[in-house]
Amino acid sequence: MDATVLGAWVATGLTLLIFSFLYKDNPLFKLAEHLYVGVSVGYIIVKTYDTVIVHLVVKPIVENGEIALLIPVAIGMLMLTRYVPKAAWLSRYAFAFIVGMGAGLAIPRTISSFILKQIEDTVRPLMSMTGPDGLAFSMNLLNPGSNLNALIILLGVSSVLFYFFFSIEHSGAGRAVARTGVIFLMVSFGAGFGYTVMARMSLLIGRLTDLIEFSDASYGRPTIWLLILMIAVLFFLSRRDQEHPPDTH
Amino acid sequence: MSFSERMLKIDRRIIFLMIGLCTLLPLLYPVGLPIKISSEVRGVYDHIESLPERSVFLLSIDFDPASKPELHPQAIALLRHAFRKNLRVIAMTLWVSGTGMADQLVTQVAQELGKEYGKDYAFLGWSPGGQAVIINMGQNLYSAFPSDYSGKPTKDLPILDGVRNLKDVTYMVSLGAGRPGVEEWYVFGKDKYKFEMGGGCTGVMAPGLYPLLRSGQINGLIGGLRGAAEYESLIGQKGKAVAGMDAQSATHVAIIVLVIMCNLFYFSLRRASQTQGQVG
Amino acid sequence: MIFLRRQLPLLITLITGLLFAGQYYVPHPASEQMLTSATKWLQIIGGFALILGVTSLFHQHAVKIKRQEAGWGYSFVLYAGMLGTIAAGLWADGKESVDGAMTAFGWVYNFMMVPLQGTMFAILAFFIASAAYRSFRARSREAAVLLVAAVIVMMGRVPLGEYLIPLSGDVSSWILNVLNSSVRRAILIGVSLGAIALSFKIIFGVERSYLGGGKE
Question: C201 vs chain B: nearest CA distance in angstroms?
């Protein structure tokens, strides 16, 4: 059998095993779930070995004599001492280095990228120059760069930050600002939900597209045959459970 | 038990079946409704369109098979566009589980357009460390990737002539499904090395990247399968994303109908209990 | 001993943290060279961290098999999948394809890992639909706002929605570009401030939970 055809049968079978969870949790799903974890872990181990050990460490040391690379290898090995209870404290050196460096690298870059740049774009001029001496306030909501939208964004950012940071009891004017912040938040969460639905449905569309492709005669129609088999097995398992309910004690 | 109560406690497998059919039927019998192009997606397209031939285009394929249906069509469409414009395409990934997929899609599109490995494109593969890889590439690309995916020394690749680090990249797009992704490429890459940058992401992430888009930190954003369908329409070569848009429409309408029904039953139940309360 | 086990790691964090935060503002060739070398080191250490993360599963499932806990047979499946993939990977020198031809490792990746991982996430589509039906109710004014925004965006981002209600496309675009942008920006600023504060706490040894394992 051609490797691609065999692959189509295996891929279809595994896809249907996972989908069987929609009927109910069953041994076929559990089997596929554990196989997924095993294959993924195996894949990561092989890629890490090939990329890190072979290409980033051994080759540069052997071919270019970059002996200094043994230092990160030693730090990495220290990390693995977590598996040896008596020597586990040695892993702290590795984590101290990674965490310290990570924090140091992140501080200035985060300030520049996410705080200064974002504030800069929030406090835009509320009026725009339209000529040598004319000032205008554009009201077009559909243009994200209009003055009205700039004002709405300023209001949104300030009210949401106020709602988050001022944990005092909101009363009077503060209450109005916090309420505005909540409304903005709800609209954004709604948009987020809409996009999440879109994303999840796309994933299903992708898997069903593959199943449709594998229902083709050139692959031997694995989707159709394996779907029939899957329904039969689930029916058999369901009957068996009805006749011999699993012992809950 | 009233009708509304019964409907609210309906077996969830009926809903599953409805969603399954709403996805499957449009895939089998497509309608092909027109797709409107958004300014976010046009931002990336227009920028690539404006680049001169042989400009250096870096594509970071930062996703794994879990997000394949959304981001794979984006990657295919972007690569087709870049290859047609005769850009020098450098592809890579920061996600270990995405390596095989990235290799396959780059090779597939390059073969489709008759591009030569090493001269027109290169696939650097994966390297661990996320943000460290980005900074290291910014400092010295050959230090971050001493060899490409197949093990050839990167210094020997003609496509990288004159490319020392990220400062020599003309345009960069990260197709991210999480971390590391678009945000990390900005914070640890563009912030210091000042290359022009666009983004592509899953639908879940898209709303969170709008602040970067507004501030001009990224010049375009391709969001989810819809974004991919828009890009496919822009380059005039329809693929899996456009094919999936009818199913996307049907499932969205199905969810909206479900939400409306749920609220109708909920309000009917609430009204009934209020009436009972008044009588009682 | 307490110095070696506790104070020295904290000192390493303090020095590396301050050094690399300061490096951003000192673009001297020597400082840039230090950044190049250190990030290369971090790449290599990142590989070990990845191995540390995934190998913790070995132990967990080995214990399950040893004690013959419920479902220990599945742990065998996990080990078989892992060892089979490692064998195929080493056989193929860690490459999914060589000169465009798929290797055995590539076969395992394409026909096992890709469909398994893809489907695992695809089933969420069904659960989000079920959750929307069961719990997406306009119980309060805020919930109603959330619901209306979600419906507009869901309509406005698909061709059928734009066809049925032409305005939905423009309204959803405005919601995303303006209202959503402002909220996400506030969240981004807030989260960034929190991350910076945490980074300083780590550098100055106030936050030490990352030191974890081992006795004092």
Answer: 21
